[in-house]
What does this fold into?
Amino acid sequence: MKLTLKSLFSNIWVNLLLVLSFAAGFIGIFISGGYIDAFFADISSYKIGSGDDGIVFVSANEPVPLSDWKFGAGSGSVVCGAMYSDDISGESVYLAGVDGRFLETHRFAVIEGRFFTSEEALSEEDICVAEKAAGLSVGDVFAAADLKLRVVGVIGTNNLRGRIFLPYGTLMKSTRLRAAVSDYIIAADSAQTAEKAAAAALKSYSVTKSLTSREYFSSTLRGATAKMLTALLLGAASLLLNLLQIGNIVKFNAENRIREYGILISLGADRAEIARRLFAEYFAVMLLSQLILILCAPVFGRLLKDIISWQFGLACALIPLLLSAAEALFIAVIYSKKICSRKPVELLRRLERESGAEA
It folds into this structure.
């Protein structure tokens, strides 16, 4: 450990370049991982894709009261969605107004507290249920527009946005939130029932778009795929440039430390010992790079949240950690092999020449 720290500080400028190089590469991979993580979370948020699952997505230019969704002889559930941005903090949250059949229809797992009762879901009480990703707990109270919502339950989903569910009537009683409602999700007992409910709303309100789950899934997939491919290209380019720069710096570092390695080899150190030293040193450099990454993550999240809609998930933390170990092992094996392939006599002669030149 002492030798590793000594090596780090004796080559401080070279190792600083290494830290910055690793950090730059990891940030690119971090962003790429965020895209991919959110892509898979978004497409699995709802049970969509068959077209015959009784789910229809509706966009409207005006709020539609719950009582105006008519399912005829069938039955169904309606969710209205509004994106709310706080004027002071700038934080955005997706609020979803739900009816009494929402939990029965979607069957989300309640991991803390409880979900609304059917009576509460049809009321205008200032209560809500949060997704785990929202970071709220039962009993928390937070302001959204002119509402003060009390959390009564937390549900576990794989959606990274941290949506907040509240009674349909509660969302609609807020003037600001009602004006922000733009999309509705109809989940009925059959595709025909859902499409009839959407068609009935189309006659009375300014409905701009109505899509079956298959159509919605296809359009979402096209946009998300383009984002994911962009992210993969960004991550690949970052990784390639990262490896090229790291290779040059490590090569320069190894050549300039031939005196240290030559002495070790002359004293009988084997390849395994040198490989262990190299691995310890470069893994320490990478851990410092990850520390920079962790410190920068909240900043990047705030800067990018208004441009792209994804959040950072677990993959973004695991990918750099695994790459750190892999790259450190690669460097240790390759450069210890190159160093140990030199004969001790050649290294001693080089040391003599360098000593003579210094004298």
Remarks:
- The two ends are 33 Å apart (CA to CA).
- The chain has a mean pLDDT of 70.
- The longest helix spans residues 213-256.
